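Module 6 notes. Inverse folding takes a fixed backbone as the condition and produces residue identities as the prediction. Think of it as a translation problem where the source language is geometry and the target language is the twenty amino acids. Below is one complete input and output pair. Work through it position by position during the lab.
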């Protein structure tokens, strides 16, 4: 019997999911593994007992705020983000901290809010600022030679955290590959602070390695890998001695999956809710104003896109760097023709 709670969540995004359903079906054709989209998108929300969002995200961290010329999303996802709010108010020219962020942003444009937040390392976005026409969800770059291998013979090293990358690793693991999750000894996966059952679901059957993320410390792990999944800024990886181009050139058939908010050439930080907003993946209320859809929706959407891209590349022999943009994945769904109006 279908889980009714998951079905209820799924109904809220039904007008948008056709492109994702197509990607999931293609993944099944490639691997034989069926993608359970309701669980992929909404199991976290169900297990955590989250409520359907409005102008505050389901997890409570991201806010849609009305600016002078429209709307903007500011995601205060980490303690450092909350601590930076006074500095953000100062950048926005607000003389009175007690007035708060919603009042301050009304005096400036949405783009100015997003730019000021990003200067402080806070994830922020203007709705629809990333379009499918401007950037594909996945961009493949060839850096190595092709060699087709069975999925069961592959070793995947997953350096990612939170949701998108681990979901990609889960789906590839279900396809038969061996997955090794790698965590920093000083900065473990932040998803461990969430619902334990959801973390176990994402990483079921995976090996776990905890290492010191220091220059040279990761080389042995990468040397044994056929696929690398990561969601870091390329310059951060280079400081650790990891270069996708060298990894791909060293042995035929390898694949590198790089997940970012806006592309590997863009250092802007992003999380699932603000990336969805950037891609225009929002609902609208009865007044035509934006509201959040789902739970950090760009995260699981990106995980499915990334898994499919990796499976397709591997089926063709690999040798590719797959650049997966969370905002662009969201934009692909936002282009679905029917938009739904949600109650306040």
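Target side of the pair, the amino acids:
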């Amino acid at each position: 019997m279908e889980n009714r709670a998951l079905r209820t969540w799924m109904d809220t995004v039904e007008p948008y999911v056709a492109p994702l359903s197509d990607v999931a079906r293609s993944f099944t054709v490639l691997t034989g593994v069926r993608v359970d989209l309701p669980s992929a998108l909404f199991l976290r929300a169900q297990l955590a007992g989250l409520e359907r969002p409005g102008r505050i995200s389901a997890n409570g961290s991201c806010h849609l705020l009305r600016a002078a010329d429209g709307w903007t999303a500011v995601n205060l996802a980490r303690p450092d983000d909350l601590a930076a709010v006074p500095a953000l108010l100062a950048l926005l020219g607000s003389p009175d901290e007690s007035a708060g962020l919603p009042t301050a942003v009304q005096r400036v444009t949405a783009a100015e809010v997003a730019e000021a937040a990003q200067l402080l390392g806070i994830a922020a976005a203007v709705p629809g600022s990333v379009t499918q026409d401007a950037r594909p969800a996945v961009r493949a770059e060839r850096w190595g030679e092709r060699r087709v291998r069975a999925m069961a013979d592959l070793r995947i090293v997953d350096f990612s955290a939170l949701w998108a990358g681990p979901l990609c690793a889960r789906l590839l693991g279900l396809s038969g590959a061996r997955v090794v999750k790698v965590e920093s000894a000083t900065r473990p996966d932040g998803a461990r602070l969430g619902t334990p059952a959801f973390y176990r679901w994402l990483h079921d059957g995976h090996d776990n390695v905890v290492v010191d993320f220091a220059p040279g410390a990761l080389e042995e792990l990468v040397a044994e890998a056929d696929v690398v999944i990561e969601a870091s800024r390329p310059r951060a990886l280079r400081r650790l001695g990891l270069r996708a181009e060298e990894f791909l050139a060293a042995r035929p058939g390898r694949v590198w999956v790089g997940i970012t908010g806006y592309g590997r050439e863009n250092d802007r930080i992003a999380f699932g809710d603000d990336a969805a907003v950037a891609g225009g993946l929002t609902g609208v209320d009865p007044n035509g104003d934006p509201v959040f859809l789902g739970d950090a929706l760009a995260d699981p959407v990106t995980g499915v896109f990334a898994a499919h891209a990796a499976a397709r590349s591997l089926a063709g022999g690999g040798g590719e760097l797959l650049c997966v943009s969370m905002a662009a994945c969201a934009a692909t769904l936002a282009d679905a023709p029917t938009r739904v109006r949600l109650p306040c």
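Reference fact for the lab report: The two ends are 31 Å apart (CA to CA).
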